[in-house]
Structures are given as C-alpha cells and as structure tokens.
Amino acid sequence: MDLRNFHYLLNFNLYAAAAAAAAAAAAAAAAAAAAAAAAAAAAAAEKGRKEKVRNPHSGEAGGHAGVQQQQLLLQQQQQRQQQQQQRQQKQQQQQQQQQQMQQRQRREQQQQHQQQQQPLQQHQQQQRQTQQQQQQQQQQQQQQQQQQQQQQEYGTCL
C-alpha cells in the first residue's frame, strides 16, 4: 500500500468516525428534547389539574389549554425527530458517496499500478531476450573456436 492510499484511508476513517459521532450527538440531543417535551407536557397537565382543583368552574378552560399545550409540544417533538432522521439520512448518503469514491479511487490506483508494472515487465523481458542472445553468441563463438581448433589439428595431421 503506497503512502497516498494510506493517508486517504486514514482521512476517510476519520471522516466516518466524525460523522458517526455527530449522528450520536444529534440522537442524544433529540432524546434530550423529547424528554424536555415530555416533562413540559407533564408540567402543563399538572398545572391544568391544579387549576381545576383551585377553580372547579373554570376547569374546562384550564384543562383545554393544557391539552393544547401538550399537543403543541408533541408536534414540536415530532418535528425535531423528523429533522434528526433527515440529518441521519443525509449523513448516510454522504458516507455512501464517500465509499463509492474510495472504491473508484482504489480501482484507478490498481489500474495505475498495472500500467506502471507493464513497462517493468517489458524491460525484464527485454533483459531476458538480451541475455539469451548473448548466450547464443557465446555458444556460436565457442563452436567457431572448436571448429578452428579442429581444422588446425587436422591441418597439422595432413
């Protein structure tokens, strides 16, 4: 693995970890908001109940206001949850895009590596061919020398 690829993977892992931490923080914030909304709704209901106990004749109005406030708080909570889900979906899409980009870069790096290896392989093949040619030339020279020696020996015999 070359250094550029290592740095890219490191940066991608850091980005994924940061995105996961952001998603966890957003989920915790949504949970805290839901708890606050539930506490506010409970407080509104308690306030309506106390108002009804103190003033039984106007209890309907107080109770109705408490119900409206509960509904409003629940709507706000649902909106926050929807926004949280949208943020998480967006983060997931970004992570998928990042992974696709990483895969594309890996393929490109593999292709570049293969292209870089090709000249090296050609060079090695040329070296082997050159060595074979040199060996053949040496064998031919040895054969010529042997023939010359034989001719000299036969020439002296005649």
Q: How would you describe this protein?
A:
It is a single chain. The protein has about 160 residues and is mainly α. The protein has one domain. About 95% of the residues lie in helices and about 0% in strands. It has helices spanning about 5-55, 60-155. Helix 1 packs antiparallel against helix 2 (about 60-155).
Q: What's the total number of strands?
A: 0
From the structure provided, what is the oligomeric state, counting identical versus distinct chains?
Answer: single chain
Mean pLDDT: 81
What's the Cα radius of gyration? 42 Å
Question: What is the number of helices?
Answer: 2
Helix content: over 70%
Provide key terms for this protein.
158 residues, mainly alpha, 96% helix, rod-shaped
How would the blueprint of this fold be written?
Elements: H1 3-54, H2 59-157
Helix pairs in contact: 1-2
Quickly describe the structure.
With 158 residues, the chain is an all-alpha fold.
